[in-house]
Amino acid sequence: MNVFRLIGDLSHLLAILILLWKIWKTRSCSGISGKSQFLFALVFTTRYLDLFTNFISPYNTFMKIVYIVCSCVTVYFIYVKFKATYDSNHDTFRVEFLVVPVGGLAFLVNHDFTPLEILWTFSIYLESVAILPQLFMISKTGEAETITSHYLFALGAYRALYIVNWVYRYYFEGFFDLIAIVAGCVQTILYCDFFYLYITKVLQGKKLSLPA
Amino acid sequence: EKSQMDKDEL
């Protein structure tokens, strides 16, 4: 474990908690893409199947459980509890265009052709594009609530910090995982446009609005 | 091959 990965994990945890807090406090999931949250729940459930068979550390197990529980609760909030506030008219990204290619790629490019490894690879590839429905929804509505932009910033920052963690581990531990690195770079690149808007608008106290 | 132990990242 290094400081970059720790801050990255905490940023990820913060993002997940910000989203849950926003939905719970405002009792509304307006502006939130249920499809992205469903994909994130899929990412965690396919990545942490070794939760009970491969013990790494108390921290690792604790975080995996938190991620799985929070992502499922978020999906429950959006599609069940606060269903009336879910903006399905703007959440129209075709997720099958993500899941099918990612599933195929996971079969073709992986480290080991075993079920657990292929599911892990699927999860890594899926995570890199899981935010697309959310970014697409914001581009359609033309704006995002400030709390939602803080959520997205923390979520984007987490994988950007993981890239720094991979550079660190390469130079100091000789460890690198090309699949995770490439997917992590793709994931972070997808946030660049949002990062620019967040830094130039939200941090200036303005509302995040995309040029319609 | 990547052993399962390598999967120490979240």
Automatic annotation (TrEMBL), chain A:
<dbReference type="Pfam" id="PF00810">
    <property type="entry name" value="ER_lumen_recept"/>
</dbReference>
<keyword id="KW-0256">Endoplasmic reticulum</keyword>
<keyword id="KW-0653">Protein transport</keyword>
<feature type="transmembrane region" description="Helical">
    <location>
        <begin position="62"/>
        <end position="80"/>
    </location>
</feature>
<dbReference type="InterPro" id="IPR000133">
    <property type="entry name" value="ER_ret_rcpt"/>
</dbReference>
<dbReference type="GO" id="GO:0006621">
    <property type="term" value="P:protein retention in ER lumen"/>
</dbReference>
<feature type="transmembrane region" description="Helical">
    <location>
        <begin position="92"/>
        <end position="110"/>
    </location>
</feature>
<keyword id="KW-0472">Membrane</keyword>
<dbReference type="GO" id="GO:0005789">
    <property type="term" value="C:endoplasmic reticulum membrane"/>
</dbReference>
<dbReference type="GO" id="GO:0016192">
    <property type="term" value="P:vesicle-mediated transport"/>
</dbReference>
<dbReference type="GO" id="GO:0015031">
    <property type="term" value="P:protein transport"/>
</dbReference>
<feature type="transmembrane region" description="Helical">
    <location>
        <begin position="122"/>
        <end position="139"/>
    </location>
</feature>
<keyword id="KW-0675">Receptor</keyword>
<keyword id="KW-0813">Transport</keyword>
<protein>
    <recommendedName>
        <fullName>ER lumen protein-retaining receptor</fullName>
    </recommendedName>
</protein>
<keyword id="KW-0812">Transmembrane</keyword>
<comment type="similarity">
    <text>Belongs to the ERD2 family.</text>
</comment>
<feature type="transmembrane region" description="Helical">
    <location>
        <begin position="151"/>
        <end position="172"/>
    </location>
</feature>
<dbReference type="GO" id="GO:0046923">
    <property type="term" value="F:ER retention sequence binding"/>
</dbReference>
<keyword id="KW-1133">Transmembrane helix</keyword>
<keyword id="KW-0931">ER-Golgi transport</keyword>
<feature type="transmembrane region" description="Helical">
    <location>
        <begin position="178"/>
        <end position="199"/>
    </location>
</feature>
